[in-house]
Amino acid sequence: MHPGLRDxxxxxxxxxxxxxxxxxxxxxxxxxxxxxxDFQNANPFRGTNLKVQFLLFTPSDPRCxxxxxxxxxxxNSGFNVTLGTKLIIHGFRALGTKPSWIEKLIGALLRAADAxxxxxxxxxxxxxxxxxxxxxxxxxGLKISSFLSKLLVLGVSESSIHIIGVSLxxxxxxxxxxxxxxxxxxxxxLDPAGPEYTRASLEERLxxxxxxxxxxIHTDTDNLGIRIPVGHVxxxxxxxxxxxxxxxxxxxxxxxxxxxxxxxVDLYISALENLxxxxxxxxxxxxxxxxxxxxxxxxxxxxxxxRIGLVEQGGVKIEPLPKEVKxxxxxxxxxxxxxxxxxxxxxxxxxxxxxxxxxxxxxxxxATSSGKITIPKQKLQGRGVLAHPTPQCQIHQVxxxxxxxxxxxxxxxTIIVGKFCTAPLPVNDK
Length: 430
Hints:
Blueprint: E1 8-13, E2 16-21, E3 53-58, E4 61-67, H1 71-75, E5 84-89, H2 102-112, E6 115-121, H3 123-126, H4 130-135, H5 137-154, E7 161-166, H6 168-179, E8 186-190, E9 213-218, E10 233-237, H7 254-273, E11 281-282, H8 286-290, H9 298-301, E12 325-329, E13 340-348, E14 356-363, E15 368-375, E16 381-388, E17 397-402, E18 418-424
Parallel strand pairs: 5-6, 5-7, 7-8, 8-9, 9-10, 10-12
Antiparallel strand pairs: 1-2, 3-4, 3-6, 11-12, 13-16, 13-18, 14-15, 14-17
């Protein structure tokens, strides 16, 4: 026999020449690759039985979900008890399908944080009728709480657990936090669901008592999102409704219904992936914010302005944390969404007998942004807040235009004289 064929055998079978190799006793079998588990798909017409999966994702393979049910599964799948744990909970799934944004959020979290990322797949319990999904919230909260107890047995601390809940999933996170008596580290609600929850009790919905730090990003308060504050810090993005870049007519179909609501997810992913900060400012109302009445974060945050993302406590550096603080920010219409807020102010040389409206436009190399200053009659000063994609130092031209009278037949040829000032926010001095 040829020496190179010592461990091989040849056979003639039914006229076909077959060749196969026979391994020696010392050979090791190939390492078995872990089996990836995907989200389930549910038939929305077959009820909403609760079939929950916990899928662990690791940096080595961010697209492969490892099904973890028991402590042994966690120990054998790359779970690291010394790291923090991010738990993602999706919301209502009308058609019983996997959330389209889930993989992008998982990948962004794994790149931004050295942490375990676990996605809670409850597609079966969240499909069909919305009210049926709401009825499953308590049961799901109990299942997640039971799963977290296994993490605690392994040595994970309660304060290292961060729940990120989307829409209805935000209230599930609140329920879990309630079961743990508010001792979980962090809950982030991405446009927490409004229907059935606006008038719900604190025990039934997300609230500031559910974790050591609770934040919520509101982007659709006039439709699918909740309009009341539910955390320590509540971001009302562009006032909390009608996000720039989203369709404004119902003819856009599904996108019209869901775009504002899902913008909270897009913003959070963008905050994880980009260095440009999504900074917000506490204010009594969105109108007051736009009018330039809230220029710093002294009250109540002692100048530590909150930021969307994985900054500890949102960047707020005071203890104890105040509750249900509404903060406002403006964004652009597309990723990375971040905008640099600027105070614009005009001081008239002489008062006028009617309101004066001045449109201010900033020009940079690749963007144009406009805002409005209103100077009340018999007053000398007016101010407003303008948001621009680039910092103030990159603005190469500013245009000021006196807004014409609403009476189209009258021509206002008035020339006004005064002083124009700008300052980037936060403005901590004069």
